[in-house]
Amino acid sequence: MTVRASTQVDGGTPTPGPSHPLQRLGADEIRRARAVLADHGLVGEHTRFAYLGLEEPPKQEVLAFTAGDPVDRRVRAILLDTRSGAAADVVASLTRGAIDSSVELDTAREGQPPIMLEDLIAVDEIVKADSGWRAAVARRGITELDLVRPCPLSAGSFGLPGEEGRRMLRVLSFLQHHPKDHPWAHPIDGLVAYVDLIERRVLHLIDHEVLPVPEEEGNFDDPAAVGPPRTSLRPIQITQPEGPSFTVDGDEVTWEGWRLRIGFDAREGLTLHQLSLQDRPVLYRASVAEMMVPYADPGPARFWQNYFDAGEYLLGQQVVSLMLGCDCLGEIRYLDAVLPGGDGEPREVPNAICLHEEDVGVAWKHTDLFTGSSETRRMRRLVVSTFVAIGNYDYGFFWYLYLDGRVELEIKATGVLFTSAYVEGSRWATQVAPGLGGPYHQHMFSARLDMTVDGVDNAVDEVELERLPAGPDNPHGNAFTRRVTRLARESDGVRTADASVGRSWQVVNPAQTNRLGQPVAYALDPQPAPLLAAATDAAVTSRAAFATRHLWVTRYDPAQRYAAGDLPNQHPGGAGLPTYVAADRDIDGADIVLWHTFGMTHFPRPEDWPVMPVVSCGFTLRPVGFFDRSPVLDLPR
Ligand SMILES: [Cu+2]
Known about the structure:
The model is unreliable at 1-15 (pLDDT under 50). The chain has a 19-stranded antiparallel beta sheet that branches. It has a four-stranded antiparallel beta sheet with strand order 1-2-3-4, with helices on one face. It is built from eight helices and 30 strands. With 637 residues, it is mainly β. 9% of the residues lie in helices and 41% in strands. It is globular and about 80 Å long. The structure holds copper (II) ion. Copper (II) ion is lined by residues 413, 441, 443, 602.
């Protein structure tokens, strides 16, 4: 490991300073970053930018910022030399044209740089050049290699002989009948190539068994296959003749007392910053800091399947452009995303982030028995959303801000199943079409919620129903109460949800009270769902330890950003949250971060084929004593 500071070198034309330290990186800044790194000799002929993003200043610096203050713009880059396999983690200042740190990564111990979009092409070339793989494909009756689609699948870390220190992918392939035919309908199963991306060769071939390639096509976008669209749906039109109620100024959005900044990162995708309500801070930063998809099949062709879609594949890099009238209805404002390409040059994705306002039914209502009063008000929410397409699956990230102070994240999973050949009687898959398996898997997300409820110093109370036995205090047996437990240290903050007692976690500000003398709070309401299903001693369990608990609470540390650690790709395990909480810091009345695991356990249905109707998961943040009374009394009739 080497760390070196640098002298200041001019890295091209300085760009005008940003108006805010969290302003999203612009195309000029990405070019400038590349130039600064190149001027310091960090960009060689074979250097690829596996990651490049804004290195946010520490929280106290951002909170102290006032308009017009100078900003030191810094970026973090994970660089990979595709010839040697050497990798570096670099922080550079665009403002000063300087390298603040450059650390050579010990990839066997610290993990590999993320997988890049271009690795799709690499694995295609590598497996198709391998005579053993071609022979194995031919044994399955496949000769037209142009119609075989190899997938760049993250290798994980299983301590397999000869793999240590190599930059690898594992490759399962699919067949097309023609170039418009969706390959996911035709898995070429029982055959896996283990690929070394640096040596650009197949290291090892698993040719476990020859299984029939399912033949039925799954072309949901072909009218000839799905039949004519129904004609019975009449138009619904959503109009806001006076425009939406929100305003967008650069990355800053205001709506009905809410104020927030929109961020977008190549790794985390959509991020929310400095979210406040009526000038009272609620959340300093919110993101989906990791997500991973472990599969259930223990067989030789599939035991290794688990994809860290954020840390290994970079959610933000997979963002797609949204279409008016399809993805969002009504009065829409779009933001474009600017992302670094593998070559370090900026790449723009138009209409990547959608902002709109929605009517969501009744906010409150009462018809009174005695006064004859009858009042109803309507609820609205502001929606900030984005969609990513990660190979077969598509994920929508929908943040909702409500008039009554609630914040929700809904993740919509759709797209196409990662299929298998179906073997009769399989315990690891559902048959979703003739001979086609929908393998069992989970989608595990980690939301990183850097809370600032009325200020930076917060604490967490676990709140749940307490049932009481009948006795002298409870002579009729009807009693129940609320149990409140303060989580004092990081070791206390590692918690599991419990729907049977409605367990929630209230983030309180012990120093701020409402008019009733209660500490102001925001509750995290989980949707209790199964945690990681893999065995305790499975390799994936140590790599995705975050997914073994619904809640982790850590002391804020700007270096602790990712639930499964900085570089989960091929990481041997133990990084991220287990390491962060090992210090067992005090979290009672401190600058704290909540990490919430949620997700879905997916036993695919025939209805999920050939394209899956959206299924959702998420969580809610709900004000508890944050307001003195209902905050939506003033809604107009
Ligand atoms: Cu699924």
